[in-house]
Structures are given as C-alpha cells and as structure tokens.
C-alpha cells in the first residue's frame, strides 16, 4: 500500500453536520435550464398571467353575464358538440387507418402514411377555404348532397367535417406505434386458445390499445375545441347556429370588449387544461400498462 | 496510480447505496469489485470515475483529494457495461475522440493521432476494422473498441463496468485472459466490477467483496476463500459456511 | 413507425376479402377527407388559367405578405431552435425536482387555442393591456404591428422542436455523453460531436414543422395583426382577405403556395423519420408530433 494511507483519517469525524455534496455530472445544466425558464417566462407565462390578472379583475356578475349570454352558450354548445362528434368519428377511422398502415401491405401505403400528417402541415386557413370549396353546393362533395336538400358547407355539419380533417392524425399517430409494438405472440396465443379473429380483436387487441385510443381521442378533441382557421370558412358563422367559441372571442375583441373576451376565453382555457391534465394522466396509465406488459 | 476512498456515503433518495466505503488500491493493481447485483459496486466505480458524486467522504487519486475534480479532468479510462460507443463514428473515430477533444495546447497533430489509433487497434487486435461502425461489430469487438478508446487518453486508472456481462460464455474466457495479459503489458491500475465470483477469482490480484452498500472483505482470492471474514463472504464464494447464519443479499 | 409491416403469420391475419375491404375504407376516408381538399386548392387556383395564377402571386400585396411571412419564420425558427435544444438538454440530461411540471409547461402552448393565444398578447401589450400605458407613453407599438405577429408566432410554435427532441433524447440516454466526458471532452464538444449527430434528423424535422406552423399560423396572428394591407398581412391573412373579397382564384393561388410548403414539409418529415436512428422506445410515450392547437 502507498504511504498516503497513514495520513488519511480512518476515524469518522468532523463531517457529520455537512450538507451532502451535489454536483452535476454533465455540463450545461444552469445555462440550459436558465434559458428555458427565461424563454418560457417571457413567451408563455407572462401573457398567461395577464389573462389571469384580467380575469381576476372581473366581478362575478360580469363574468357570469359574459359567459351565459344565449349567443355565447350556443357557441359553447356547438364547439363542444362538434368537437365530440368529430373526435368520436376520428377514433373509428383513425384506428382503421392505423390498423391498415401497420398490418397490411398495399400499393401506396407509404403515400397514405405520409398524407396522414397533412393536417399538421397545411395552414388552417388553406384547409378552411379548400373544405369550403369541396363542400359547397357546387363543390366536388357538396353537389352529391345538394339534390337531397342537404347542405354541408355553412352549417354545423361543415364545422364537424373541418374538425374531422384537423383531428385525424392525432388518433392515427397515437395508436399506430402502440399497434406496431404489439407482439404477434399475443394474438397467436389467443388463436391457439380457440378465439376467432373478431374475438381476439375485441378481447385482446382492443383492451391493449384502449389507453392509446383514449389519448388520441382526447388530443383530437382538445385540438378541435380551439380550432379556428379551418372552421370559420366552412361554418357560415351564423349566430346561435354555426358560430364557434373562438369566433365569439374575436368578435368581442373587435368591439373592444376585453372583459367579455377574457371571460369566454377563461372557460375555454380551463377546459383545455382539464383535457391536458387528463391526457397526462392517460399517458401515465398507458406507460404503466406497457410497463406491466413487458 | 493509487486509489483511496475514505468514508464514502451515497444515497439515491432515501435508499443508502454506499455506506462508509474505505478502499485502498495500490498503483498497478488489478482489483475486482465483486458482489450481488444492487450491492453498490457499479456506483462505487462511477464515483471513482466522477460520473457520480458521493454525498459524503473523500476520494484520493494518486494521493490527491479528487472528490471535486470533474470527470473530464480525472484522466480515468472507463469502459461502460454496454460500451457506449459513439454510434455515428467509425471505430477509428471512436478511438481518436479523446485525443481530438484535448485543449488545443495539448492536442496532437492529426498524423500522430492516426498513428496512435493504429497502434491501439493493433493492441486490441482490430486492425482492418477502422472504418466500420459500431452497429457492424460483434459484442466482443465492440468491447475491444471501447477498451482501445479508453486507453487512448493514457488513463491513470482503467475502470471496467461488468466487462464480460454482455458476452457469450466462450468469448468471456478469452477476453478474461486477454485483459489479464493487457494489464501486465501496460501496467495501469485497473478496477473492474463483476457479479461473477469465478471471473473475479480468475482475473484479479485482490477482490473487494461488497454486500448491501458495504465492503465485507478485501483480500486476495485465496485468502477470501480460506479465511472468510463474514458468513456472507463464505456463502458468496461457496466455501464452508462455518456454521454461521448467512446474511441475505 | 415501422418501415414495413411485420410479416404476418397465418393465424393472425384476416381473410383476403376483409383485408381489401378495410384497406379500401381507409384509403377512401383519407382520400375524401384529406386528399380531396388538397387537390381542390390547386384546381381552384388554376381555374382562371396560369396567367391569372401568376398575376395573383406577383401582385405587390401578395409579395409583401410573402416577405413578411418569410421574415417572421426566419426570426422565430432559430429562436425556437435554441430554446428547443436548451429545454431538451436540461430536461433529458439532468435530474431535478419539478421536471415533469416543466415538460407540461413546455407543451402548454399546444393546448391553448390560437385565438386565445392572440388574446393574451393583446392583454399584455394592447393599449388597455398590462404594459399598455407604459408602451403608449414611449410610443412603442407591439400589438397590431410586426412585433405582435412575431411574439404570438413564437408562443404558438415554441413547443415544436422541444417536443420532437425530448422523447428521442430520453430514449437515447446519457451514456455516450458520459463516455465523452471521461475522455476529456468539454460541454460544447460533447454537444457538437456526440449529442448533435445523434439527434440531427429529429432536429431538422422539428425545425421544418416549426417553420410550417410559423408560416401558416392564422388564428393567433389574425388577432394581433391589425390586417393592414401590404404591412401586417401575412400569407394566410392575405388568403382570407382575398377570399372574403370574392377573389376566389387569387385566394387559392396564394393558398397553393402554402400548400406546396405543406407538401415539402411532409416530404422532409418522411425522409428525416427514416434517417433518424431511434432506439426502440417503449410504447409508453407515443411521439405524435404534438402539433396540437
């Protein structure tokens, strides 16, 4: 042994009261966290605080008046109902598209896979006028419904269709990776135990995919609730009939009714945050499920 | 270079992983940290490398208090259990990395670096694989690239975390012998972590046997087997238990 | 996403007729809901011929809108690139209390309606806003001017790059960085030589998405722009303006530029996804691109 040993104290003394050492192993923590907090503080938190401050300045009566006006209530009803319907339809077709993309090989599969992201990349205003053109009475789709007296564009139906467009990738892209990661042994075991394909899907696959499906639904719903650009061009924007909540906010802003706009927005924002919270909880659930499975 | 620790303590949250670790390793020794999984041996190795900090206690490298020396200044060669090769770099680039990131004043010229890399690859018997990428290598080859990369910085200590853990049984035996002979050839203090007592006995000058965050006994393989200090040591090395009850791991 | 569907085994696939039916339904739905509107953009744009199409693009107000849109993106994307990398580094390479809350905060703008995003900036910088009197006294205009457009765009696009990097860097872990550290590399060397090469394609993809959204944002920009022709009208706002003035062909012509940008984005995304090596991440954190709101 080296001679230093003698010099090193073996008795434990003098250190007991000291604070445990904490040192960062990889560099850059202070710099990057500082930058992140600064940026978030300025860009995200400061304006949200302004909304909170403005909302706190409203009296309860002011708030209630603003959000319970019949026109506003009608808009809430439309926004929530249309988002709910669109997200539900998207669950069915989103799972179908994800299933087909993961399980089957067919010409153009890659193209379809790439196109699913189109609503992510296409500016909403472009989607809006394009949908209006397609759904109008003389449009490619609208003309098939016109003779039956069914109007798609400029009605609540148009709102739902626009939200279908916007929400589809959320369901597909949430379900797809989970579906791709499923072990084939799972289904083989079910088949081996005598289950039909449908029974296997119902009893084995669907429960496994459920957390992802619910997450996809919540994401599509949340997005639909706040959507503006793609909807206003096909909605017709008739008060009490086809006017969505974001448009109410814009209307109030144009009349310099900041208090009213704030009140309406606070309800929307609260709904968004509840959904965000639910999505986080869902993803934790999904994580636990996946963790238990492997 | 010698390694000494005094009263090292480490907790992860409320769980103690190391308690009062006093370790003395002389320059040039080949020492194995042996123990069941979860006994804290890898944490101890990482503290020596500076990849983890002890909550309390001191670490001396070559007699100097290195407790607060950052990992990048310790000049310690570390071979990770899963090698941690840079996947976007070829074998030669991996080995040269430590030489290329030196401060400009101490950096070698590119030709010297190339020569050094060639020498190192010859030493680990990987000539001809310079331009391969980690994904194109077998487990044993990756292990040797990781070793060459660690040796490139002329480490004062070589630390190996479960160096045989991820390899086939027959490759392990060869590699064990080869590391032993490498150690004799380059004479650098070497500490390796293993949970396999046969491996430790076969390769190490001395074994530090750990259990539940504490050192049970430090001795030569023969001494451990002949004079186990605690029932745990006896049980872990498969020697007669001498009638004592055995601590659970 | 897998490059190819796994080879299915006999016991776990469907009869051919059902497969064809499902494929047909899926393609039909995607075609009807996604492809048809996209095709409509281009046919409507060319309805009055190529000359009218070209005229709509080179007309001064359209050109001004194009330059404004490019300028805003050119400013916002680099800033968000720095923010995204810094946030991902802090969150994935270090442990600290409150990390989960920070990640939620980073993704928060995704859950805020674009119109609400615009509103909150009006509440800070508008004449009646929090800082309004102070700004008015100094004759600084933020809302209904260029700075407002830039700020809301920053807000709306801030999560894109971080959201792309965080799951990837989490899955990649920190071992390679630790190895670089023991070999003597400093912080910048670790980032440039080890981390960046491992995330470059995801970074490119995040930047491209961020750019698409920065150029295409409509709701939030609409609230704070003030719609001054030739000055604060971005491309999407210019599309709306033309459309509302019944200049349909011109509106679609300008819209087709944005549609081309979207197609370019999809292509880059597809390539980047194939080039980015991803460690087999657990199915727990579906990377949905997170392009919400």
Largest sheet of chain C: none
Rounded mean pLDDT score of chain C: 89
Name the beta content range of chain C.
under 5%
Structural class of chain C: mainly alpha
Give me the Rg of chain C, rounded.
Answer: 23 Å
Structural class of the secondary structure composition of chain A?
mainly alpha
Strand tally of chain A: 0
Cα(first) to Cα(last) distance of chain C is 23 Å
Tell me roughly what share of residues is in helical segments of chain C: over 70%
What gross morphology of chain C would you assign?
Answer: globular
Question: What proportion of the residues of chain A is helical, as a percent range?
Answer: over 70%
Which SSEs are present, and which pair or pack?
The complex is a heterotrimer of chains A (294), B (249) and C (293).
Chain A: H1 4-7, H2 29-56, H3 60-68, H4 70-103, H5 109-115, H6 118-121, H7 124-135, H8 142-145, H9 156-181, H10 184-192, H11 197-226, H12 229-235, H13 245-254, H14 258-293
Chain B: E1 3-12, E2 15-25, E3 30-34, H1 41-49, E4 56-61, E5 64-65, E6 76-79, H2 91-100, H3 110-123, H4 139-152, E7 157-161, H5 169-186, E8 189-194, H6 197-203, E9 206-211, E10 214-219, H7 221-226, H8 231-236
Parallel strand pairs in B: 3-8, 3-9, 6-7, 7-8
Antiparallel strand pairs in B: 1-2, 1-4, 4-5, 9-10
Chain C: H1 16-45, H2 49-58, H3 60-92, H4 99-107, H5 114-125, H6 132-137, H7 146-157, H8 159-172, H9 175-182, H10 187-216, H11 219-225, H12 235-244, H13 248-275
